[in-house]
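Q: Hi! First time doing this. I have a protein sequence and I read that you can turn it into a structure. Is that right? Here it is:
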Amino acid sequence: MQAHQPPNSREPVLGVRAFLRLGAFSLDIGFSIGARFTALFGPSGCGKTTTLKVIAGLLRPERGHIRLNGRCLFDSERDCDLPPEQRGVGLVFQDARLFPHMTVEENLRFAFKYIRQGQQRFDFDEVVRALQLQPLLTRKPRSLSGGETQRVAIGRMLLAAPDILLLDEPMAALDIPTRLHLLTELRDIHERFRLPMLYVSHDLATVLNIADEVLLMQKGRITGQGAPETVLADYISTGLLATETVRNIIHGHVVRHDDALGTTTIRANGIELVLPRVQRAPEQAIKLELPASEIILATVQPQQISARNVLRGTVRNILQIGNRTLVRVDAGLMLTVEIVEATVQALNLKEGCDVFMIIKATAFRLLN
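A: Yes, that's right. Below is the predicted 3D structure, encoded as structure tokens:
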């Protein structure tokens, strides 16, 4: 396998300036991103999928330019317009588009058809291991679950050796536990293969827990870019965010079990958490979901309570998003807590103050 060495995560990898009219809708965008996991965030119909299609070469802008790692993909003034197969852009759609007559292995190896010798960037066996595809190799797409299908689609696109991976919210149709599990796997893939990713999302869990950076899109324009907390704090859209459950995603490993109490203790970022007994061996990796609304805040250490987890932390920031209040607390493990606005005043919460997070053992949900 050839080593894949993308630029520094903060250096520009993809630069886009494009204008396109589609009926009554117009796309007018300008942005650049580095080799990070970037979320393209915004309401339905704002132009997110159109943006990905423009970058991938499936739609041609009326004017503008697109550059990837300094290479011209499109430039209306220089008559540069590379076809999709020459752009080095991988695009994964919501529907996986696997070949139904091929096995999973044949679908994966089909990616090599368009790669010239010496261009292969990722080893077949390594991709199969990373996405846990070995048990699926002899099966046909019709026998796969939704999550399995998307893992195969992502694997096939990786094997096509892209310089950047664009994902049109391929997890949207999956149930929440499967979606969150696959998102954490996707983040692992990003870090393992050091591959820049641009992920279309309108899911707060993705933006707050997975993305390094957010591009905020509204009505065909990029209206914000930066760290998730900064961008979301400036984004007021109760229609999009009013019902979205904010979830923390926790990566850890099993420490021990207490059969008498029926509990399991895990460690995440040096912090021990107690949850109901799970069937995992000690030291085995574990991924958990914790809804932000399931965490209680206190400014003094609670005594004689039933909750098994009390974590002391520091308020890093308080986000007012539409009519919702989110508090980011650093307890060695960064967690988002959702409270009502009146609680901020009642507890005199502010950045830098110490708080205690109270979490019931039953609040955690197993993802893997």
